[in-house]
Automatic annotation (TrEMBL):
Residues 121-157 are annotated as: Disordered. It comes from the Eukaryota. Keywords: Initiation factor, Protein biosynthesis. It holds the Pfam family eIF-1a. One of its GO terms (molecular function) is translation initiation factor activity. It comes from Rotaria magnacalcarata. SUPFAM superfamilies: Nucleic acid-binding proteins (SSF50249). Residues 14-91 form the S1-like domain. Residues 140-157 have a biased composition (Basic and acidic residues). HAMAP family: aIF_1A. This is S1-like domain-containing protein.
Length: 157
């Protein structure tokens, strides 16, 4: 059995030091998740903002989950102005602090990360009329008209 190295789980309650931007770095807000380690983000730079294609570094890829609406720190590339690299993700309280000290614009909407894990089950609406025993003989279940019926002769060979 492998030995415990002492790292433990996530310490989400720990407060970390707020990291501000340096030269060649800008704050951004995620607009779309593109997949394969790429996101589209709106950078708050000196020109009033620009959408850029951002690559999530391997250090963050499976450890830090980045969602739409998150505030991130990106490093611009010297040779490609429309691309950037994600350096870190700010937690929602850190993003509010950046907004308070006027590092990011006031019109940025900071969303609170969801802590409940219901996986959208509450959003599903069940139709009880098709689940009762008496409904099997009284009502016909709705049928998709785009799917051929199993009695169609083209299916039989």
């Amino acid at each position: 059995m492998p030995k415990n190295k002492g790292k433990g789980g996530k310490n989400e309650n720990m407060k970390r030091e707020l990291i501000l931007k340096d030269n060649g770095q800008f704050y951004a807000q995620v607009t779309r998740i593109l997949g394969s380690g790429y996101i589209e983000a709106f950078c708050f730079d000196n020109t009033g903002g620009k959408k850029r294609l951002c690559h999530i570094r391997g250090k963050l890829r499976r450890k830090v989950w980045i969602n739409q609406g998150d505030v991130i720190l990106v490093g611009l590339r010297d040779y490609q102005d429309d691309k950037a690299d994600v350096l870190m993700k700010y937690l929602s309280d850190e993003a509010r602090e950046l907004k308070r000290i006027r590092e990011i614009p006031d019109n940025v909407n900071i969303t609170e990360a969801s802590t409940n894990n219901h996986d959208g089950v509450e959003d599903v609406i069940f139709d009880d009329r098709h689940n009762s025993d008496a409904s099997s003989s009284e009502e016909e279940l709705p049928r998709d008209v785009n799917v051929r019926a199993s009695t169609d002769e083209s299916f039989r060979r």
